[in-house]
């Protein structure tokens, strides 16, 4: 008996992993990708990016990353890996295909895109967490004479040499970009509005993301209590760096709020050394200057918005409260949803790391989709 017809939307890590696993279960798989290559979001990241998760826990199903890449592969190596993965499993995405709608029809699915319509038994949305760039709009911003760019547009620090630059947001991208800039700019400030949980890249020589075993053994709240003294000893308090102190631990903030902790790759050392100066949230822009919540006013030549991305799937799925929450995010990822045959892969921040979660989701989705009957 022929396997199910599956359409996977997105040719990033999650989409490729799902395609490989579905093919392994006998499905006929088509991958639709709006860009012109696999791993498009990785190609758009800043050049200095390295994985924040260990290589040993970042490979996709059926293919490990080369050992000689070291513990934390680079952006370029990740792109090479995704290309090789697609080749290994015979995945040939249809590039330049923008999916506009996914609708239930005749016991299956119709996927509408700019090249026509695909009929499918199974649809996997694997479009990633890097959706539309969030661009805050502060009073007076339109009159700012310098350059304002989102972190997704940042490639290298070189064009900003000698300037005064403000980085807004202290997630992993914001921290990395601030460190890169600190080597070449006249001044780099970091605007941090809310509390940030910071964890070291490694504890006792073990990558921090490998310690999710504690969460599985004890639950995330107890895991936070167990690791809190170790984190304080290793890093100190956020207050030591002029940062707001979070009320929740890193696991609780991730599980309950979907906020990924900062994995420190040198940002705290740069702050301690005075190469990066922490500022509070922004109140408004005044000409070429920024006024902060504490009343301080500083002039900048450029502002980098490391303010994240918004994932809203309502334009794709329409009114779908059974499968999407009020913000348009999936209620269930990596498993069966309320709409049989529809799945979401790696669309929720994971303590395992997104690459490892992509593999876990892909295996679970493929196994469920291969069942001869869905309830």
How would you sum up this structure in a few lines?
It comes from Tranquillimonas alkanivorans. The protein has helices at 13-24, 40-44, 75-88, 172-182, 213-218, 220-235, 250-257, 267-272, 314-317, 354-369, and strands spanning 5-9, 28-32, 99-105, 108-113, 116-120, 122-125, 132-133, 147-150, 164-168, 187-191, 198-200, 202-203, 206-207, 262-264, 277-279, 282-286, 289-292, 297-299, 302-305, 309-310, 342-344. By secondary structure, the protein is α/β, with parallel strands linked by helices.
Structure description:
The chain is an alpha/beta fold and 375 residues long. The chain folds into two domains: 5-131 and 311-369, FAD/NAD(P)-binding domain (3-Layer(bba) Sandwich); 134-308, FAD/NAD(P)-binding domain, CATH 3.50.50.60. Helix content is 26%, strand content 22%. The protein has ten helices and 21 strands. It has helices spanning 13-24, 40-44, 75-88, 172-182, 213-218, 220-235, 250-257, 267-272, 314-317, 354-369, and strands at 5-9, 28-32, 99-105, 108-113, 116-120, 122-125, 132-133, 147-150, 164-168, 187-191, 198-200, 202-203, 206-207, 262-264, 277-279, 282-286, 289-292, 297-299, 302-305, 309-310, 342-344. A five-stranded parallel β-sheet has the order 8-19-9-10-15, covered by helices on one side. The protein starts with a strand and ends in a 6-residue tail after the last helix. The model has no long low-confidence stretch (mean pLDDT 94).
